[in-house]
Request: fold
Amino acid sequence: MPKSFLTSFVLLVLIVLLSPAGISAAVDPLSSIEQDYRDGRLTLDERVLLQIAAIKNPAALPDRYRPETVAASATYFSKCATPVLLDIRSNWDLLNSSTQATYTAAFLRAVTESVYVSPSGFFKLHYDTTGANAVPIDDLDASGVPDFVERCAAYLDSSLATHQALGYRLPPGDSLLGGDTLLDVYFEELGGIYGYAQPEGPGPEPWNDSYSYLVLHRDFLDFPANYDPEGSQAGAAKATCAHEFHHCVQFAYDAGDDIWFMEMDATHIEDIVFEQVDDNYNYLPGFFTVPEKSLMETGNHAYSSFIWGIFLGERFDTSLMEAIWDGARFQTAFAAMTDTIAGRYGVSRDAAFTEFAIWNYLTQGRDDGVHYSEDYPFSVKTAKTHTLFPVTLQTAPYNPAGYGAAYVQFFPGGRLGTLEITVNGDDAREWGAYLVLSSADNVHTFEPLALSPGAYYGIDSVLHIENFYRVTLVMVNTMEYSAGAFFNYSATIIPPYAVRSSVVTVDSAVYSGGRRDFEYRITNDAPVVDVLDVTAWDNSGWVSPGTQSFSLAAESDSIVTIQVAPPNATPLGSVSEMWFKVASRGNPAMVDSQVVGARTTLQRGDLDFEGEIKISDLTYLVNFLFKSGAPPVPMADAGDFSCDAFVNVTDLTQLVKYLFQGGNSPICNPY
Reply:
C-alpha cells in the first residue's frame, strides 16, 4: 500500500469516527451511507470518505455502517461501485482538498506481484497470490498462472468479442498507465462488492470520453447463487467481467451520462454476453415488486431495471443500444433513445415504455410464450384485484412515478355482458393505458385505452366479458423523471339486456301546423337479440302518445322517427318538453330515456301560417304584392322566401321555382 494512501487513510478514519452518531446499522453500507446523506445526516465530504472506506476497507467503517460480519465472508452485496465513483467525480469541485487527496490516494493503481495478458491481447490482468488481495492460487493446468485469473481473462475476452460483434467503440487507451496501452484489470478484496470501473481522465475525442481501468473481486466466493452451469463463483465472475467492461465501453461515449442508465445497461449486457448465468435474477424482484418506481431511479433499482434493455433488444434489435450510445456522445443516452427508436422503427419512446409495461405483466404463470424469450420466475405486483361489481370510483393504491406503471385486475367470474372501465389520470402528468384481455391465464389480446389529451380521461368497453377470464388495466406514467401521481378508475358490467339511446336531431325547431320527424337512436347493448319498446310523450300535445316496437340484433342500433306536430297557429317561440324512452322487452328494468325540447319557429314561404309551403302560399304572395292583399302571417318575414330581408318579386320567382321546377327551399329555414 503506497505511503501517500496510508497518510490519507488516517484522515479518512478520523472523519469516519467523528461522523454523526445515532444512525442505525445497515445491511448494505453504500446504500446506507447514501440514504443518510440524503436525509441530511452526513455532509458531502463525510459521505465520500465513508464511501471510500466501504469500497477499499470496510473494516474501517463504524459499526452502524458495517454488516454483522465484515471479513472473508461478506453478508451484504452491492452489484457495482462504479455509480459511487461517477457521483464523486461529478461533485469533485464541491469536495475539500483533503477529501480529494484521500480519494486520489485510495484509487491509485495497485502494484501487484504478477500480470497476465488475456489471449486476445486486449486485457492486462494484475494480481497477487499472497496478502489481502490474493486470488485463488489453484493452477491445475500448471501454466504458472492461477486458473481463476485465466478464466477471468477468458470471460473478459468473450465480453470484448460480443461488444465488437455489436459494433461498440472500444475503451480509449490509458497512455501507458499500467505499463502499456492494454486495458488494465485488477483484483481486490471488495467485501460484498462485485467490482467497479474507474474512469481516470479524458480520452482523445471531442466528446466526454474517458480512459479507465476495472477492478474485479479477488475470488467471488460466497456471493449470491446464480444459474451458471459451471457454478456460482464462475457465474459471478462472468457477470462482473461483462458488466464492468461495459462500463469502460460506455466511457468511450460519455463518462458522465445518467448513472441509472449506465447501471441498467451494464446489467443488461451481462445477459447478452453470458445468457446462461442469469445472475441478474438476483435483482429482478426489485423491479417486479415495485413497478410503480421510476425507471430512472438510481441505487439497486437500476440493476433490476436491466429488463428494459432486454425488452429493447428483443422488441426491436440487439444493435439498438449501441446506436443509442452513439447518439449519447452529444446528449444523454435516454434523450438519444427517443430519436433512435423513432428513427429506426417509427415508435415513440413513450409508446415503447407502455408496451414494455405490458410485457412485464406477461411473466411466470402469465407468460404466453411470444414476448420475453426467458420465462422469468417472477410476477409483477398488481395494485388491486376486483371480483365484485360495480367497482365504484377509487384511487389506485400506488402512484406511478415517471416511467413507472401500475396494474389493476378485474375478474368477471363468468358474468355476462359488457365490462366498462373508466380511468382518469392526474392532469399534471402524461399517461398511457392498455387493457390486457386474458381468455386464459396465459392467453392474451391487447387493447389500447384511448385517453383524452390533457385531461387523460377515457372509457373502454369490453364486449362479451363472459369470454374472458381476466381483464387487466395497465396504467403508465409517461412523464419521465416525474414524481408519483394518482389515477382514478371505476368499472361496471353492463348486464346482457341493456339499452342506450340518444337524440340524433340536434336542433329543436318545428313549424306551427307542420310535421317534423325527430330522429331517436336506440341501441341494443345486449349480447343477444332483444325487442325494444319506444314510447314518446310531451307536455303540449305535440306528440301522439304510443309505443313502437323494434327487434334489434345483438349490439346493434336503429333510428326511430317520432313525429312532432304543433297545432296550426301555435305562436312562434312556443316550447314543448318531450320525453323519448326505450325499454328492453327482455328485461323491462333496462330503460333509457332522453328529454328534448321543441320550439316553434318561422317557416319562410309559409305565408298563410298553415305549416307547409304550397300553392295557396303562392296565391297569398301574389295578392300581397299586386292586389293589396293581407301581409304574410304571423309576420312579414314569412314571405321572405329569398332570405334577403325583403318581400318582393324575387321571392315570388323563387317560390314558383320551388313549387313547380324543383327549386330549393329557403336557405334560412332551420330544416
The first strand starts at residue 114 and ends at 117. The mean pLDDT is 92. The chain is about 30% helix and 25% strand.
